[in-house]
Amino acid sequence: MVDPILTLRSVVAGYGAGDILKGVDLDVRPATVTCLIGPNGAGKSTVLRCVSGLLRPSRGSVVFRDEMIDRLSPRQRLDRGIVHVPQERSLFPAMTVWDNLLMGGYTIRDRKRLRERVEHVAEAFPVCVRRARDDAGSLSGGEQKQVELARTLVLDPSLVLLDEPSIGLDPRSRQQVFGSIRGLADRGVAVLLVEQNARSGLAASDVGAVLETGVVRLVDSGASLLANPEVARLYLGGLTRTTTGET
Ligand SMILES: Nc1ncnc2c1ncn2[C@@H]1O[C@H](COP(=O)(O)OP(=O)(O)OP(=O)(O)O)[C@@H](O)[C@H]1O
């Protein structure tokens, strides 16, 4: 099996009033989608924050490409290829789609290289070309999510952290978003995904991990977790259908 690009070991973290993560162990491998599921408030978003540097664990280690990154700033982690897409919409609504893509490469000083990166990325996301000159705020929620995903690629990341990318989207847009997420992995990017819509998230993932009361209780292939009666009872509305239907 390919070595993990990201390893969390015994990670403990919280926001002051007690620990939320109580010893999280997790591996994420290159060119795969790993989906973190679990009940509300389990700490799924907190795991992503510990990886991108928005939150520092009080104990444990976060290793990215054989380097301990625990003490690095979010910017230093970005420079190493870790991009975090938060749950909230993050495009600048009054700027054009194209300018939003350019903003995604804000650390690239060479204008020509930046333009080439944006053109390259836009090839894989038709909406970025079709709506290039429109204000991002005029796009549908699903289209905006596609632009957000495209924007993450401008910096050519090796790890993308996605927090609830399907939230608030209609079923068709949701399918498109999960298709694009698979596309990231096909390009060699490792994706760590947090998804409330556990059934769709696991169906689009190579690996699933169940986070409960601050620790990872179970790790298996996405397909195996979908077929696991206990997981189905707790997180998939009781059914072990292996479709991408709704929870
Ligand atoms: N900035 C913060 N300050 C204080 N507490 C916070 C903060 N962010 C999150 N929490 C608390 O930490 C716990 C875990 O939150 P987190 O968002 O990581 O959970 P989650 O599993 O992603 O939940 P959900 O599925 O509901 O999004 C929750 O009890 C939440 O209220």
TrEMBL record:
InterPro entries: AAA+_ATPase, ABC_transporter-like_ATP-bd, BCAA_Transport_ATP-bd_LivF, P-loop_NTPase. Pfam families: ABC_tran. One of its GO terms (molecular function) is branched-chain amino acid transmembrane transporter activity. CDD domains: ABC_TM1139_LivF_branched (cd03224). SUPFAM superfamilies: P-loop containing nucleoside triphosphate hydrolases. Residues 6-238 form the ABC transporter domain. Keywords: Amino-acid transport, ATP-binding, Nucleotide-binding, Transport. Coiled coil: none annotated. SMART domains: AAA. It comes from the Bacteria. One of its GO terms (biological process) is L-amino acid transport. PANTHER family: ABC TRANSPORTER ATP-BINDING PROTEIN, HIGH-AFFINITY BRANCHED-CHAIN AMINO ACID TRANSPORT ATP-BINDING PROTEIN LIVF. Belongs to the ABC transporter superfamily. This is Branched-chain amino acid transport system ATP-binding protein.
